[in-house]
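Fold it.
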Amino acid sequence: MSQLSVKDLKVRVATWERESLSALRLIEQGERLPRYSRFGGIDAFNHMKWEDFQSRSLEDVNARFVRAHKELLSFLTGAEVHHYARETRFRRRLRLDT
């Protein structure tokens, strides 16, 4: 996967926005986050997600991309202000994933 297409990039962004949403929900609940080592690391996770979407159309990927972004923005808009007031697990994870 040396050269990424627009479709590949949209899959990557949508995947990580969904991962961010899942992680932020867990953080809000005070729970531990799952480790990517269960997939063989982050690179293996990214490759697995890339493979999952190779047979899907660009239109399908575009719809997933837009939906993931809207869901994340909606969640972030409703998040409590204290998550953003200082460096927190919430803010750090959001920065790393997006």
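The chain is about 70% helix and 0% strand.
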